Amino acid sequence: MARRYDSRTTIFSPDGHLYQIEYAMEAISHAGTVLGVLAKDGVVLAAEKKVTGKLLDLSAASTGGFGGSGEKIFMLNTNVVAGVAGLTADANSLVNYARQAAQQHLFRYNEDIPVEQLAQRLCDLKQGYTQYGGLRPFGVSLLYAGWDPHYQFQLYHSDPSGNYSGWKATCIGANNGTAQSLLKQEYKDDITMEDAIGLVMRTMSKTMDSTTLGSEKLEFATLTIDPKTKTPLAKIYRPAEVDALLKKHDLAKKDEDTEMKAA
Amino acid sequence: MECSFALTGNGYVLVASDTTAARSIVKMKTDEDKTKVLGPHLVMTYSGEPGDTVQFAEFVERNLRLHQIRHHQALRPQSAASWIRRALADSLRSRSPYAVNLLVGGFDTSVAAIREETEAVGGEPKLYWIDYLGTMAEVPFAAHGYGSYFALSLLDRYHNPQASLDEGIATLRRCIDEVSKRLIVAPSNYKVRVVDKDGVREVEL
């Protein structure tokens, strides 16, 4: 019985479940935590890296020129950054697809793809694997932080089933329940970027197992509007910048007014 | 001969197209609407090869409607115009190109288009001049056809981007009157539409 309805992704069990999809979602809830908070003047993303170790050689890690270590947080387009939780190899494939979709939109309409449309494109692909047989679904959930002229700053979440939803603050991966209840308690409407960064840092430090946070365990990104050009500005922090931010924030815990900008 | 004009003002775009349908030297009718409302805040005039014009305009109309249904959101004027230009440019490089000239007028109501100084007008007027070769330019005023030889110099002199709707209509009438006076084969009637924050509506001259 146990093996009858979970060997194929596309067959319903008698009680109406698609087990493979649910297993994929279960796998994600063991992956590194990814956290997103929507502020009134930007969006913050943070991600926990699971693959660490002294012997891991990160010197050749492809940052794509955007900073970061390119493991959990990716730039999908000039107006969208995404954090991924789940199978890294699957995520790379989806990131590639998303970047291509965004460029196709730019080619057709001469505008950056609206954030929801990009999330939709990826979800159409993911949904396909719950319906067409023979293949396994993508074992990836994503958080999209983006900006477009229609709805300004936005935060979306999508899962392996192809569902997506918009959030003010949310979390995927390990301990997402704990993180979400923390966010629910502390989130306020009209939160500023500075407070949002603080909220993300605090929640992240409480969610992660390790006692000390460092750039080897954490990726961090923000999406704001460039005050000069009035266009979206995605920033994926470099390891040194993440450390500086953590340091400054730890100091800033007593004095909230301290500037928390990375050096 | 076919003429179309368009101009922007304070919080609106005016587009006008003659209503003559001619074949060879014969005027077939004078109440042909050669404008198309493409969305809640988007309107287009079309002229060129008879047959191509209506076919292409309907193609654009249906595709933009489909986009709106799929995404619960109309394309912004800039994106719609870019898409139309691409459709024409691709057509030009096919076996059966469309020979159509367009003026696309729209009003960008997206939140980002409403800046402090445009808060009262509720967005930004946009106007695009597109020809059958797939050339596109965003312009403050535009014209197609023989009428453009008379109208553009007038618009150069009298166009004011901050003009009220009445002033804009007066400038448009000036263009039409000049064409009627000087062009040997001037069209008799025009269809005029305005697009602003409230949408697209027809204007009587």
TrEMBL record, chain A:
Cellular compartments annotated: Cytoplasm; Nucleus
One Pfam family matching this protein: Proteasome
Alphabetized UniProt keyword annotations: Cytoplasm, Hydrolase, Nucleus, Proteasome
Cellular compartments per GO CC: cytoplasm; nucleus; proteasome core complex, alpha-subunit complex
Source taxon at top rank: Eukaryota
GO annotation (BP), single: ubiquitin-dependent protein catabolic process
Gene3D superfamilies the UniProt entry points to: Glutamine Phosphoribosylpyrophosphate, subunit 1, domain 1
Alphabetized InterPro entries for the sequence: Ntn_hydrolases_N, Proteasome_alpha, Proteasome_alpha-type, Proteasome_asu_N, Proteasome_sua/b
Keyword S-adenosyl-L-methionine: no
CDD domains: proteasome_alpha_type_4
Segments forming domain Proteasome alpha-type subunits: 5-27
One GO molecular-function entry: hydrolase activity
Coiled-coil annotated residue ranges, if any: none
Summary of the function given for this chain in its UniProt record: The proteasome is a multicatalytic proteinase complex which is characterized by its ability to cleave peptides with Arg, Phe, Tyr, Leu, and Glu adjacent to the leaving group at neutral or slightly basic pH. The proteasome has an ATP-dependent proteolytic activity.
Complex and partners: The 26S proteasome consists of a 20S proteasome core and two 19S regulatory subunits.
Protein family per UniProt: Belongs to the peptidase T1A family.
The protein, known as: Proteasome subunit alpha type
UniProt organism field: Rickenella mellea
From TrEMBL, chain B:
GO process annotations (BP): proteasomal protein catabolic process
GO cellular component term of the entry, any: cytoplasm
InterPro entries on file: Ntn_hydrolases_N, Proteasome_alpha, Proteasome_beta2, Proteasome_bsu_CS, Proteasome_sua/b, Proteasome_suB-type
Location of this chain's protein in the cell: Cytoplasm; Nucleus
SUPFAM superfamilies reported for this sequence: N-terminal nucleophile aminohydrolases (Ntn hydrolases) (SSF56235)
Recorded family membership: Belongs to the peptidase T1B family.
Role: Component of the proteasome, a multicatalytic proteinase complex which is characterized by its ability to cleave peptides with Arg, Phe, Tyr, Leu, and Glu adjacent to the leaving group at neutral or slightly basic pH. The proteasome has an ATP-dependent proteolytic activity.
Protein name per Swiss-Prot or TrEMBL: Proteasome subunit beta
Lineage per the UniProt record: Eukaryota, Fungi, Dikarya, Basidiomycota, Agaricomycotina
